Amino acid sequence: MSFGEKLKSCRKNMRLNQKEFGQKIGVAESTVSLYESNKRFPDADTLKKIANLFDVSLDYLLGNVKDNHAAEGKMPKDLNKFLQQSEIIFDGDTYNLTEDERDMVMKSLEVAFYAAKQANKRKKGDSPTK
């Protein structure tokens, strides 16, 4: 699958038209069309924005791996480190979190993880490992 085909597929999976997608990554609709028809290729910064928006690796976008999950492997993700990034994309929208907002998200995640652990204990009848 070419870069343009992969880009179009990812865009459609997010239910974005070319104009909406272009606005999210900072390019014109016509530029998106050129990307998808393989007549133009994005620069490095735009590639990073695309990968972040679609939550895929650059290797996946560039065709170095067929399955995005294969590129990720089993490496655990550090949510605290993730939240420290200057821009975070969630559900297709970009956010710049303040320190207070980061703390609120972390506290919410701690509550959610605790609830999930408790539910897991009840299901399995034993304590989960850390």
Protein traits:
single chain, 130 residues, mainly alpha, 434 Repressor (Amino-terminal Domain), 2 domains, two-stranded antiparallel sheet, 2 strands, elongated
Secondary-structure blueprint:
Elements: H1 3-13, H2 18-25, H3 29-36, H4 44-54, H5 58-61, H6 68-72, H7 79-83, E1 88-90, E2 93-95, H8 99-124
Antiparallel strand pairs: 1-2
Helix pairs in contact: 2-3
What is the compact description of this entry?
The protein has 130 residues and is mainly α. The protein has helices at 3-13, 18-25, 29-36, 44-54, 58-61, 68-72, 79-83, 99-124; strands at residues 88-90, 93-95.
What does it look like?
The chain is mainly α and 130 residues long. It has two domains: 3-72, Orthogonal Bundle (434 Repressor (Amino-terminal Domain)); 79-124. The protein is 60% helix and 5% strand. The chain has eight helices and two strands. The chain has helices at 3-13, 18-25, 29-36, 44-54, 58-61, 68-72, 79-83, 99-124, and strands at residues 88-90, 93-95. The protein has a two-stranded antiparallel sheet with strand order 1-2. β1 and β2 form a beta hairpin. α2 packs across α3. It is elongated. Mean pLDDT is 81; it is low at 70-75. InterPro entries: Cro/C1-type_HTH (IPR001387), Lambda_DNA-bd_dom_sf (IPR010982). This is Helix-turn-helix domain-containing protein. Pfam families: HTH_3 (PF01381). Keywords: DNA-binding. Residues 7-61 form the HTH cro/C1-type domain.
